[in-house]
Design goal:
32 strands; 18% strand; alpha/beta; binds adenosine-5'-triphosphate; 7-stranded parallel β-sheet; globular; 37% helix
């Protein structure tokens, strides 16, 4: 059905009505020789509530022409107008309070119009894809109650012009298509979708890049920045810009505070607001006069936008701007209240102002019950609800509002990551009892006192026979681990500590605790060199054991890629029968088909080098036994203890900040060793440019060190000289020249291309003192322990990361001897970064500095950070406190409902955010 409403001379207005109740308003052409102005149609939903209306204070021509203009003002400020009355004068037209629009130049004739109009008064067919009206989505919107702050204007609009319908349920609200947003044409919705905004959530997660603030116009005006001004219109001109476009230029004069010293008077700045109207039709005089007449000299206006300096002093051009008329004094304050103003980045070509406008409408359409977060969590962690957070980030009243909102949104990023990790871990456990045990342990991560008397006899015996006493944080760490080992559920703990702090002995003692009660242990390390070193060290410690340990001496085996087939067969058999109590090896421990008789603990050294996948494989391989349905479900039964999944103890020598550790290993309990063994002397560190003078100095230092009986590591970035990188020093290439330079002192070479036994031989000779200089690549970075090595020189040090250099430096100063470390940089420019190592030897501090400089992904190296989560808003480097809160909140939620059944909203959100994680049903 179609109804012709009005026919006003040259303007025809038709309305078609769909059976579904939606309308399409069509404004037919008008003719304005010589230019043909075509006023396009406009979709209007719920037209029964929005009867034929014109604009109030908005340029009508612009409105009529921009059929997809998403500016909320174009729609929300609509007010009922009688066209017949307003368009009284022919051939001019006046709509609403607009000035007269001259349709023709003075001498144009109108004779052709009647016949033209007949032809044009056709009724447009309604677009088949026209969306269902909003009211089908749910009950009427109620006025939202804001906990923390209110956006008066928005609330008013809700009441005054309520969007007829609310969305059915929070679960689906945010994930609904923008097509369903009131007053959004399908063309605009498609455009939004193509630009990456298919849903309301995606749109609301497009956060402002910054906020413009009225206050900032009072300071220095910087080119390219966003500012807000209040001022007076000086002139307004509509001009032809050639035959293809029209220009509106409004000149506004603003009085601002003078920031020059000793000048009390305010100064004037001049804003040239320029708007371009592309198309021949916008070059007509009537049109240009009409747009210019909107702003009159002396009008008070409020302008915001990006400024560009002009050649004349204190003159600025603004092409992207918003201008509002200020009529009354009160309005000034109303505007002031709306500060700060969000500035959006554009997306895929979509202009910031369009994005901002649709966001405003989306916010109005939302209800305040979109938050799946339980209210207990909101109140305990003092968080805004999600609705307020979206309002606060997009329409803050103060910058503090925006910051509060940002914190809530960051919290969510961390929270769902933690929740996902912990949830997956709980899923892997069989019974509720196990889950509750585990959560209880996470909540109470620290032990209050160390009770060595409760440790097993083998552990106590080894402890007694050590040539040193454990430091207090070594003791606490060991207590935490042993407490976990006594629990009937598998431990998943990360032992983290700075280089050389003594993690290995804590790991050994943890293994002794299970070996002493007849179980087995495995220690997996990333390199063969390290496996051999640990194997030798542990054996030598065990040799010194008192024979009084109830006659029990554990048998330790070494299994690496170089182990002969025969030997391997014997080891595998021994592990299966239980004759071998502990195996130390490389990743072959998980890739081999090893069967343990009763493996109780798996220690994974240098955790991040293996990654979650390998850790998981180790774990799940052994977990499969536990999940056997035929098992006895009494957790304390001997049978179950024997078949329980192994406890996992991961060691990390990278002293990553606790927050990063949480983000990476949110499903692990974290223990940190925070002190170093006593007697360690600070390593004297020097960063030098590796020019001739620098090398001379270093050679002299090496000579002195050799004379003083020291041992020296020379570390190189590459093995062989490279044509592509001629500036790099190479270990093999330098071997001859170094041997010649320090005649009388033996040198050895150690790099990754050598065979296992050659590496082992090189290291043994260096350890025994047969060689005094070891030319090595970064193979020595991890775990190599030669306590009396006293000097290190790193060539082309800028090629390494700060954290890596700290690890390398940790190869010296491991005993009581005073040690030195020199970092040689290729150029003076690269020297600056290395200087930070001169100032600090605290790994946590350096890692934090590195984190701030390079970001978390880089800190761990690309290879190892494949599993590092991406956070759109949060910055791990600075938002660590929120991460800690989020971790606790995730624990709280899971302890209230460990399968999340009580919180279906959270579960849905989690599966939406982490599509890869298996969430039961
Ligand atoms: N409490 C202690 N008192 C004295 N020396 C200790 C103590 N604990 C460990 N050590 C010694 O300190 C040195 C470094 O210990 P260890 O190799 O365990 O450090 P780490 O934390 O594993 O370091 P890295 O990260 O370099 O592997 C070893 O020679 C070890 O014997």
């Amino acid at each position: 059905m179609s109804i012709e409403l009005e026919s006003l001379g040259q303007i025809s207005i038709s309305r078609t009505m769909r059976s579904s109740g939606s309308y399409r308003l069509k404004l037919l052409n008008w003719w304005a020789p010589p230019n043909r102005l075509f006023l396009r149609h406009k979709h209007i939903t719920n037209a029964d509530k929005l009867p034929l209306r014109a604009l109030n204070g908005v340029n009508p021509v612009q409105f009529l022409m921009d059929d997809d203009d998403p500016n909320p003002n174009s729609v929300n400020l609509l007010k009922e107008t009688n066209f017949a009355l307003k368009c009284a004068k022919f051939p001019c037209i006046k709509i609403g309070d607009s000035p007269l629009i001259k349709l023709y130049g003075e001498d144009d004739t109108i004779l052709r119009l009647d016949s033209e109009l007949k032809h044009l008064e056709e009724i447009e067919k309604v677009d088949k894809k026209f969306p269902e009206p909003w009211h089908s989505l749910g009950p009427t919107l109620v006025k939202p109650v804001h906990q923390s702050f209110k956006e008066e204007n928005l609330v008013e609009k809700f009441v005054e012009e309520p969007l007829p319908e609310n969305l059915a349920h929070w679960e689906s609200t945010l994930d609904r298509s923008l097509k369903l947003l009131p007053n959004t044409t399908s063309r605009l919705a498609n455009l939004l979708e193509k630009s990456g905004f298919p849903t309301i959530r995606k749109l609301l997660n497009h956060f402002p890049r910054t906020y413009a603030d009225l206050q900032n116009a009072q300071g220095a005006i910087e080119d390219g920045h966003y500012f807000m001004f209040m001022g007076k219109v000086i002139s307004s001109k509509g001009m032809r810009g050639g035959s293809q476009f029209g220009i509106l230029e409004v000149l506004v004069g603003c009085e601002i505070q003078n920031i020059e010293p000793n000048v009390n008077e305010n100064k004037m700045v001049y804003l040239h607001l320029k708007r371009f109207y592309r198309g021949r039709r916008f070059t007509s005089k009537p049109f240009l006069d009409m747009i210019a007449s909107k702003y009159k000299e002396g009008d008070h206006v409020y302008v915001s936008g990006k400024v560009k300096k002009m050649n004349t002093e204190d003159h600025y051009e603004m092409q992207q701007y918003n201008i509002d008329m200020l009529e009354k004094e009160e309005q000034k304050y109303a505007h002031l209240e709306r500060k700060p103003c969000p500035v959006y980045p554009s997306k895929n070509g979509l202009k910031p102002n369009i994005i901002g406008d649709v966001i405003s409408r989306a916010l109005k359409a939302l209800n305040n019950d979109i938050d799946p977060m339980p209210s207990e969590v909101l109140s305990e962690f003092n968080l805004l609800n999600l609705f307020d957070a979206y309002l606060g980030i997009h329409r803050p009243k103060t910058l503090n509002d925006a910051d509060l909102a940002r914190r809530r949104l960051i919290f969510d990023e961390f929270f769902y990551l933690q929740l996902g990790r912990l949830f997956q871990m709980l899923e892997a456990l069989g019974t509720n009892l196990e889950r509750e045990e585990l959560l209880a342990r996470y909540r109470n991560d620290k032990v209050s006192e160390v009770c060595t008397s409760e440790w097993g006899p083998l552990t106590r015996n080894l402890l007694k026979s050590l040539p040193y006493s454990l430091t207090s944080s070594q003791l606490t760490a060991l207590s935490e681990i042993i407490l976990d080992l006594k629990r009937p559920i598998p431990m998943n703990r990360l032992l983290q500590g700075d280089v050389g702090c003594g993690k290995t002995i804590v790991a050994f003692l943890s293994c002794m605790e299970v070996l002493g009660s007849g179980f087995q242990a495995a220690l997996m390390v990333p390199t063969e060199l390290l496996a051999i070193q640990h194997y030798q060290e542990l054996n030598s410690l065990l040799e010194q054991l008192d024979s009084g340990t109830e006659g029990f001496k554990p048998t330790i085996a070494l299994l690496t890629g170089s182990t002969s087939t025969r030997e391997r067969r014997i080891i595998l058999k021994g592990l299966q029968s239980g004759d071998i109590s502990m195996v130390i090896g490389t990743h072959s421990l998980i890739s081999e088909k090893i069967e343990f008789r009763n493996l109780k603990i798996a220690v994974i050294d240098e955790q991040h080098r293996f990654g979650v996948v390998q850790r998981g494989r180790f774990n799940s391989k052994l977990l499969s036994r536990l999940r056997d349905d035929s098992m006895n479900h009494d957790l304390n039964s001997d049978e179950n203890k024997a078949f329980m999944a192994p406890h996992i103890l991961a060691l990390s020598a990278t002293p990553i900040p606790r927050t990063l550790a949480l983000a990476l290993y949110g499903d692990m309990s974290i223990t940190q060793i925070t002190d170093l063994p006593p007697g360690r002397q600070p390593i004297e560190t020097l960063a030098l440019e590796g020019n001739e003078a620098g090398f001379e100095k270093v050679y002299k230092m090496i000579k002195d060190e050799l004379v003083a009986d020291g041992k020296i590591y020379l570390v190189y970035p590459i093995i062989e000289e490279s044509e592509q990188l001629p500036e790099l020093h190479a270990a093999s290439t330098d071997y001859e020249s170094i041997s010649g330079k320090f005649e009388g002192y033996n040198c050895s070479l150690l790099h990754g291309r050598m065979k296992a036994e050659e590496k082992e031989e090189a290291l043994t000779k260096f350890r025994d003192g047969q060689t005094r200089i070891l030319l090595a690549t970064q193979v020595i970075e991890i775990g190599v322990d030669v306590p009396d090595a006293s000097m290190m020189v790193v060539m082309n040090a800028e090629r390494f990361g700060i954290a890596q250099l700290h690890q390398l430096r940790g190869r010296v100063g491991r005993g009581n001897k005073k040690s030195r470390c020199v970092f040689l940089s290729s150029t003076s420019g690269t020297l600056k970064r290395l200087k930070v190592l001169e100032k600090s030897s605290d790994g946590f501090y350096l890692a934090q500095a590195d984190l701030l400089l390079r970001g978390p992904g880089d800190l761990l190296g690309k290879k190892q950070s494949g599993h590092l989560p991406e956070f759109p808003v949060a910055r791990l480097e600075i938002d660590g406190d929120i991460l800690q809160k989020a971790h606790l909140a995730a624990l709280k939620v899971l302890s209230m409902s460990n399968n999340l059944e009580k919180y279906p909203g959270l579960k849905a959100e989690l599966s939406m955010r982490q599509p890869l994680c298996i969430l039961g049903d």
